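Last lecture ended with a question: if I hand you only a sequence, what can you say about the shape of the protein? Today we answer it with a concrete record. The protein is Myb/SANT-like DNA-binding domain-containing protein. Below, first the input exactly as provided, then the predicted structure, then a couple of comments.
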Amino acid sequence: MSDRKKRVVWTHRDDQLLLKLWAERATDLGRAKRKRYIYSKISAKMCGKFSAKDIHVKIRNLTQTYRHERKKFVASGDKTKWRLYNEVHQILGQNADNTAEEYESISQDSKFDKSYNALAEAVAVMSTPAPSSSSSSASSKAELLTPLLTRSALSSPVPPHSPSPDPLQLPRRKPATTTNSVETEMIKLMHKQTEMLQSLIEDNKELTNEIVTALREQNETSNEFLALMKSLIEKI
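The predicted structure:
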């Protein structure tokens, strides 16, 4: 991962080109729920020098730097020394505080991790064995005895020489059966698991289509670039 980070080097020329492309798609980025496709389009227009994730990280960093510099300016009134401030200000303007939180992560691995963890938790709950009838009966007795003893102590004090009441002789409520509740919870979890799997499948299909489209556009851009280079070489 460290090698990959070392290879991502942004020059001032790259920054200027990104700012231009970002300004063109700023409205789309503010409205779109899934922004990976837009980042892929920007990446293609930059001849694939930076990946869609690189574009996302760069825009996020520029937004955070702008917000930091703007807060300093509002607090002190001193002019910022950041040379990209004016360009980013034209894109974000007064809505920077709201825009910064809108740029969601495009890392599909993170999305799958969250979905997988939720799914694993649901499966773990489903696979937990139901408590035995004896243990559930004992716990039900304890839960029933505690409030009864408390109410009895508060409402009718025991005479000094009277024997303490036998907990086993106190009136009990019939413990509710846990089988139906366990089955109901299992059915709910199964429905939730099915919905999560369907959501993952739909997201994978959409992501695949976006990647294929981005690759096609990048291929077309590369072909145009090669044709242009070939034409220049022939003229030389």
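Comments.
1. DSSP finds nine helices and no strands in the chain.
2. The chain has a mean pLDDT of 73.
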